[in-house]
Amino acid sequence: MLIGNVGKEPEVRYVDAGVCVASVRLATTERAYTLQNGTEVPERTEWHNVVLWRKLAEVVEKYVHTGDKLFIEGQIHTRSFEDQNGIKRYITEIWAESMEMLSPKSQTSEPVQNQ
C-alpha cells in the first residue's frame, strides 16, 4: 500500500488486443523527525514505478495528472532486461490491484478495482 504524489504525467499505451497499460512515477515521502537524543532525521522521498492495467489504466489516462495524490494497493514485481550495451539491468515495479484518487479536484474518490 502506498500513498504518494504523481511525479510526471502518466505514460499510457495500448498493447495486444487493445489492452490499456499505464505507467506512473509515484513519490512517497517520510517526514523529517527528531530522535529523543536530539538527532534530526531529514525528510526522505522514495520514487516508485507503478504499472496499472485495463480499467485502472483507462481511469489514469482520463483523470490522473502530475501532482495528484493517489492511494495504490498492489504487488511488487522485479524484472531484468539487457540494455543497448548488453548490460543486465533490474527494475522494480508496483503492479496496482486497486487505486483511489485522493486529490480534492478528483471527480470520484471511490476505489477502482482492476478487472
Q: Can you tell me about this structure?
A:
The chain is mainly beta and 115 residues long. The chain has one helix and nine strands, in the order ββββββαβββ. It has a domain at 1-31 and 40-81: Nucleic acid-binding proteins (OB fold (Dihydrolipoamide Acetyltransferase, E2P), Beta Barrel), CATH 2.40.50.140. The protein has one helix spanning 54-63, and strands spanning 2-6, 11-15, 19-30, 33-34, 40-41, 44-53, 69-82, 88-101, 112-113. Strands 1-3-6-8-7 form a five-stranded mixed beta barrel.
Poorly predicted runs are none
Could you say what the CATH topology of the domain at 1-31 and 40-81 is called?
OB fold (Dihydrolipoamide Acetyltransferase, E2P)
Instruction: Tell me, rounded to a whole number, the average pLDDT.
Output: 91
Structure classification: mainly beta
Encode the helix/strand succession as letters: EEEEEEHEEE
What is the radius of gyration computed over CA atoms, rounded to a whole number of angstroms?
16 Å
β content, as a range? over 45%
- The CATH superfamily of the domain at 1-31 and 40-81 is known as Nucleic acid-binding proteins
What is the chains' assembly state?
single chain
> Sheet bearing the most strands, described?
5 strands, mixed, barrel
Basic shape: globular
Strand order of the largest sheet: 1-3-6-8-7
Number of strands: 9
State the separation between the terminal residues, measured CA to CA: 18 Å
Q: Architecture of the domain at 1-31 and 40-81 in CATH?
A: Beta Barrel
